[in-house]
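Colleagues,

For the teaching module next term, I've prepared a clean inverse folding example: a structure given as tokens, and then the sequence designed for it. I'd like students to try predicting residues themselves before seeing the answer, so please don't circulate the second half yet.
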């Protein structure tokens, strides 16, 4: 390319970065798979609009419509990534690919925050049978451990199916293997079921 052309070239920016710039955000915090739970102060991202028969989400409200398997953001520019009940919608290898990408997009010291069902706890709840919390579904009342094994099996919505449910131990191992330091790893879920769901915070070191 000629020298003059280079001089006037405007550097291309990821869609998420330009959204943050237009909205004058001092930090870029992403709530991926926001569904019916958009959060103030976060950029809420989802790829699926609410549709009839969607009985396991309370809506779909987002700022940016995007497939979170490929984030359109510049490397090392994101302050925090939050995924609440989203990870279990991807097969294991797919989420690991996503995690590698998220690691690249996060700034040094950036946080990856996760809430997702813990398979070990789901099994415990399942074995407690009717003693464990139940939820009403179109298939009838269901044990809230069992519901997490497969996700929504009544609506014909592919994105609501669960494809892999992690244990806390393996999630911590995978995060550490990708260069995250673990700041929290417990069952103090903030959004869904305390005791059943894991709450994990990894910091990019
Ligand atoms: C169980 S909902 C969780 C919604 C919300 N975070 C909450 O805790 O209530 C999972 C969300 O992930 C979204 N999702 C699934 N696959 C996605 C993808 N490839 N790209 C973007 N969003 C996706 C779905 O549309 C859905 O809103």
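(Answer key — instructors only)
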């Amino acid at each position: 390319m000629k020298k003059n052309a280079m001089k006037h070239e405007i550097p291309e920016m990821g869609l998420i970065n330009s959204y943050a710039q237009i909205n004058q955000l001092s930090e870029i915090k992403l709530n991926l798979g926001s569904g019916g739970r958009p959060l103030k102060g976060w950029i809420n991202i989802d790829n699926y609009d609410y549709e009839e028969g969607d009985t396991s989400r309370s809506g779909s409200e987002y700022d940016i419509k995007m497939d979170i398997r490929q984030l359109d953001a510049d490397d090392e520019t994101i302050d925090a990534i939050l995924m609440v009940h989203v990870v279990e919608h991807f097969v294991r290898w797919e989420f690991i690919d996503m995690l590698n990408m998220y690691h690249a997009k996060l700034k040094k010291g950036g946080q990856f925050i996760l809430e997702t069902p813990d398979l070990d706890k789901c099994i415990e709840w399942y074995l407690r049978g009717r003693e464990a919390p139940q939820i009403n579904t179109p298939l009838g009342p269901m044990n809230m451990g069992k519901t997490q094994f497969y996700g929504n099996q009544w609506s014909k919505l592919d994105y609501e199916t669960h494809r892999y449910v992690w244990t806390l131990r393996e999630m911590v191992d995978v995060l550490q293997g990708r260069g995250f330091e673990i700041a929290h790893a417990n069952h103090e879920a903030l959004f869904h079921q305390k005791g059943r769901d894991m709450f994990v915070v990894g910091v990019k070191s």
